[in-house]
Amino acid sequence: xxxxxxxxxxxxxxxxxxxxHFTPAxxxxxxxxxxxxxxxxxxxxxxIYRFTQALDVWRHPFWRENAIDDIDEYCRFVREHxxxxxxxxxxxxxxxxxxxxxxxxxxxxDYVIGSVHFxxxxxxxxxxxxxxxxxxxxxxxxxxxxRSLGEAARSGLFDILAHPDLVKVWGRERPLPEGDLRRYxxxxxxxxxxxxIAIEVSTAGLRKRAQELYPAPAFLQMCVEAGAPVALSSDAxxxxxxxxxxxxxxxxxxxxxxxxxxxxxxxxxxxxxxxAGVL
Length: 279
Ligand SMILES: [Zn+2]
Ligand SMILES: [Zn+2]
What we know:
The chain is α/β, with parallel strands linked by helices. It is 33% helix and 17% strand. Helix 6 (138-154) runs parallel beside helix 7 (182-195) and helix 7 (182-195) packs parallel to helix 8.
């Protein structure tokens, strides 16, 4: 069994509309690539901040700008017009855990992917609102990022922890802390171990300036030793990226002894043996 449960039916550009992309014909394009690559288990996980209901949770200017669509229409579309699992990618917003829980629990998702894209009001992976212009050192940003990741796991809001070392997204374009990075991973690992959350192995980092899988091998090793199961995804925002570069992900998984992948239904998790399909 192969999975790709972190998919977006549209690019992140604000002018990529729901009407244009939440269509059976677009889903069919994702299915076709998945089939070619031997991926049977597909799920969609749109960004929560693109839905108006997210403004009950957080009113960051970036969210206010993006919150255009109705989340229940998205859920209805996926359930009634597709055979995809219904997921959502939700940011961890410290201090808004109860409001996020209300938003998530009122809908019948198959799974919720938790992401840390922001450190307080500053974005880790965008030029707008960038944490890298906030006067903080790389060490401070990395520490804050991994602390937040551990809190996100511990919050119990999420089934999967997305792109676990997203903070490296810029590669050498942003200053990197020196030396062994495990001192940062340590800041998240207790939360990951105690929560039982699944860890995402994502090929998206290969398509970013980092040009690496998320997470780094040493971090994945620590997560696996802490008992975390793995969810495998591409984080594709267009059909041709479904299952992209999975060969590299298989090598990483094999190197840390992972032979099973998570599958989710109505927020219950089971493990299926990893089968390399027709890749
Ligand atoms: Zn993300
Ligand atoms: Zn995503």
